[in-house]
Structure formats: C-alpha cells, structure tokens
Design goal:
Radius of gyration: 17 Å
Shape: globular
Number of strands: 5
Order of helices and strands: EHEHEHEHEHHH
Helix content: 55-70%
Strand order of the largest sheet: 2-1-3-4-5
Strand content: 5-15%
C-alpha cells in the first residue's frame, strides 16, 4: 500500500481517482487546488503525487515548481494525471524532467491501477538496488542511478503516449511535429538506457 496525493479541481475526478486507488489498497490524500496541496504537504508526505495540469489560479506546472521548492520535497515522485493530451510541445518542456510520469485521460480502472502500481514498483526496485549497494558504493553514484532510471521511465511513457496520440486523429497532433518528437524521444530513451546500464555495472562491481 502507498500513500498517494491526488490534486484536481474537479470533485467528480477526485472521487473517481480515490475510488480506483483505494480499491487497489492505497491511502489517498485529496487536494482540490495547488494551494491546498502545498498546505497539506506540510503535514503529510505522500509516496506519489498525481497532479492535474488545468486548474484555476495555480496550474499543475506552477504547483510542481512550488513543490520542488519545499524542503524535503525536491525529489518526491510526481506524475501528471490530466485531460491535456501529450503533445510535442509538452514533451519539449524543460520542467517535464521534474516528473516521473505523464498520464492522460481517458483511462480505465484497470489502466490507472496498473499505471500507478508500475510507478510504485519501479520506485521500489530503485530503492532495493540502493539498499543492496550498502555503504561501499559512492552515494553520488546511487543518486545518479536513481535519477537516470526515473528519467528513462518518464521518457518511455512519453514516447508511448506520443505514438498513441499520433495514431488517434482526434488528438489533433501535427503528424510531422509528432514524428520528430517521437524520434527525439526514442534517441533520448536509448541514451538513458545506455547510461543506466553503465552506472549499474559500476554499482555491481562495487
């Protein structure tokens, strides 16, 4: 079970997400705005934050920036869960690197459950590698591995989502721009995969 914060300004969406996540055995913390999320983070530390983008006042990207400025929350896992489709412009945002994943509507109960559980399993896998390394491994190397592994996970998800959106004409993507973005994401994933392998070999060697 994990503690998951859901941030969305639409009550029905929060109700839906809460039902799905609690059914999967997770504890849910609700926040109806970015400001409320920041306030609740003062007294609760979630294992994962699911953050909507399109909120009045403080949108998801601004909320993310403010979360990262909170002491102790510089690396808390955050995933966007939004109706805003992944586009080449979104994939090129500099601050997207602060995310662990980008999940877009619509989703099924099974789809969201599997997505969240995959994120949590990936984080546990990284934590286990970190724990097995012991004190003999340079702490900087472990942090580097974690960051690269998280980025690889993010960009694999972006790549898959861009491919699906290109196939779905209702998403309205410019085909040329979308294919260019897909190509860039493929190259980025391969670079991250290679780098992660290099760091992992150093960790194994000790």
């Amino acid at each position: 079970m994990a503690r998951i914060m859901v941030v969305d300004d639409t009550p029905d969406v929060i109700l839906l997400e809460r039902g799905i996540l609690e059914r999967a055995g997770h504890e849910v913390i609700e926040a109806s705005s970015g400001a409320e999320a920041l306030e609740k983070l003062r007294s609760a530390r979630p294992d994962l934050i699911l953050l909507d983008i399109m909120m009045p006042g403080m949108d998801g990207w601004e909320t993310l920036r403010r979360i990262r400025k909170l002491k102790g929350f510089e690396e808390v896992p955050v995933a966007m869960l939004t109706a805003k489709p992944m586009t080449p412009e979104t994939a090129a945002r500099e601050d997207i690197e602060e995310l662990l994943d980008y999940i877009q509507f619509p989703f099924t109960i099974e789809g969201l459950t599997n997505k969240v559980n995959t994120i949590l399993e990936r984080l546990r896998d990284i934590d286990e590698k970190e724990a097995r390394s012991g004190q003999a491994i340079d702490e900087g190397l472990i942090k580097q591995y974690r960051r690269i592994a998280e980025k690889e996970f993010l960009h694999k998800s972006i790549l898959d989502t861009l491919k699906k959106n290109l196939e779905d004409s209702s998403r309205g993507l410019d085909p040329e721009l979308a294919r260019e973005a897909i190509s860039l994401e493929q190259e980025r994933v391969e670079r991250l995969k290679k780098r992660r392998g290099e760091i992992l070999r150093k960790i194994i060697k000790g």
